[in-house]
């Protein structure tokens, strides 16, 4: 029987940590076997700032996913984001020894390995090297060079770079949680895999993933990744503003945003008011929904402006680089009422909300196809591509065998022989104990001597 290719994705976000276990069904769609979710403690703006709390949150999410699915997780593909991420465009080439031989996968790998050796700023590390168009002996705009002839193979690359310490901290949290790290993926790339269609990537599209601590951007054109960016603002700054502006606690601010929040202030009437219980015997607070929408609107406009600056930096205004499919919004922030209309108004580009149901099996839980889980679904898809066996069935794990009980054998021994044996054994034990104690004491004294000698 063929082994199941079970894949696991772990999305370490600022507000939540999601562990997702999945596999491909017979129709090539993604079947989700189990999901675990925990509140993310110890992550700020996509970067780990408290190792212990992050480990606890990861373990909680992993445990829940295992209990839901009946699988034991061995390793995970993890998403990486944070304000330390930057991307660069780079062109490199190799000269082939034998131009009469066809170009193979090993030639492209050689070129990618060469780019991986690029000198970065101190403390930075390359996360992804993504080939774009190829050039063979001066012939440009080649998308698939394998099988062609040529001496000089050249390519433009999209190189994603991040802080080495941040990446190592994520790795440390995962290993300390008792699992292995099988791969790292930039979160906007994972979200793009989950919510974008191939047609959109061909036509040109900007994916905006609005998370709790960061807003991630990935731009595609002609089916190729063209630009990535991580903006250090997300849904949390909106919650903070509501908290400050309405003088309420964070929990209430989050609930207000989710239940009554809107990115378009014009739609609320002046007399729409929500009452919030006061703290510890204080009077309840009355908050106007129009004011609430104004606070949310101001912050969302700021986030969208930052993202649109990145889209313009890519060159969207150039007719050849035009993003025909417009913008796709995903992540928890995409669930905010009227955000689609606001984005269209600010950017003038067609906008839709991206749900990760493009690749999910038909019988998937409705909650999983929420924009909230886009990154986690993308990470599972990434893990499937790696052909990793990331989890095994609980019932397939061998349980330790119970010891077999054997009845004791009774042998009769004369009494005087027993006394002699006991005496000899006691003497032996005493001498052994003395010897162990003496050896330990000698070693201990030697250690103190060494310490004192060195101290001098």
TrEMBL record:
Keyword Protease listed: no
UniProt cross-references to Gene3D superfamilies, sorted A to Z: 3.30.1490.110, 3.30.420.40
CDD domains: ASKHA_NBD_FtsA
Domain of life: Bacteria
Membrane topology: Peripheral membrane protein
Assigned GO CC terms: cell division site; cytoplasmic side of plasma membrane
Domain SHS2: 7-195
Any one GO BP annotation for this protein: FtsZ-dependent cytokinesis
Keyword terms, alphabetized: Cell cycle, Cell division, Cell membrane, Membrane
Localization in the cell: Cell membrane
PANTHER family, per database record: CELL DIVISION PROTEIN FTSA, CELL DIVISION PROTEIN FTSA-RELATED
Subunit (UniProt): Self-interacts. Interacts with FtsZ.
Annotated HAMAP family: FtsA (MF_02033)
Family membership noted in the UniProt record: Belongs to the FtsA/MreB family.
Record function comment: Cell division protein that is involved in the assembly of the Z ring. May serve as a membrane anchor for the Z ring.
Name listed for the protein in its UniProt record: Cell division protein FtsA
Species, as recorded: Flavobacterium gawalongense
